[in-house]
Design goal:
This protein is an all-alpha fold. It has one domain (5-174): Alpha Horseshoe (Serine Threonine Protein Phosphatase 5, Tetratricopeptide repeat), CATH 1.25.40. The protein has helices at 5-29, 31-34, 38-41, 43-61, 66-91, 102-117, 126-150, 155-174. The two termini are 19 Å apart. The model has no long low-confidence stretch (mean pLDDT 86).
């Protein structure tokens, strides 16, 4: 039996929520205090990389079309690339600050994948609206993380990135296959379920 798509979205939303809380905690205590415990430096990139690995079974077993398979594969690769680059930076194996460009690149590609893989209009159903919203939010998050590469000590940018990740988690929690959005549901969408 194949679970509804909401369950998979909610599992990944929990992972993204953990990433957001880690980012927020680092912003609150400051980078110097955060790095006092070496293991904390590996939390964010390790979880991001792990989410990328977990996206592969989703791509393989829970997709029903080529465009969905390509999108999920893109997200898996993007998460692994971003997490791997950040792990290399945290470990000191990668020393150039330009490796920080992996995060904005991965977020931007993920945003484009969200937009391309949603073929319905914004108000078709809740899932369509949220896919459009998440796609544009990921592109905005890519811009924020790109700015962080050039201003790594900016509290405003780091706080904005933490809020972005938390908002992305909320969007993933709200995702449902067939549900109305703003009281509207396309008659082509099917019967809503709750």
């Amino acid at each position: 039996m194949q679970p509804r798509a909401e369950f998979v979205h909610w599992l990944f939303a929990t992972g993204v929520l953990v990433l957001g809380l880690i980012t927020l905690a680092e912003v609150i205590v400051g980078e110097e205090v955060w790095r006092m415990r070496r293991w904390r430096v590996y939390l964010w990139p390790g979880i991001a990389f792990g989410l990328g690995i977990l996206m592969w079974p989703v791509m393989t077993f829970f997709t029903n079309s080529a465009v969905h398979m390509i999108a999920h594969g893109t997200w898996a690769q993007s998460l692994m690339m971003m997490g791997g680059a950040e792990l290399g930076l945290a470990n000191g194996k990668l020393t150039s600050r330009w490796w920080g460009l992996a995060a904005p690149f991965a977020l931007g590609i993920s945003g484009v994948a969200f937009l391309v893989h949603e073929q319905n209009s914004w108000l078709f159903a809740r899932a369509a609206f949220l896919h459009h919203l998440m796609g544009w939010s990921l592109i905005a998050g890519a811009v924020i993380s790109l700015a962080i590469v050039f201003q790594p000590r900016s509290l405003a940018l780091r706080s904005g990135f933490a809020v972005f990740v938390l908002a992305l988690a909320v969007m993933l929690y709200c995702d449902r296959d067939i549900a109305s959005i703003f009281g509207h549901l396309s008659p082509l969408a099917g019967v809503p379920h709750r």
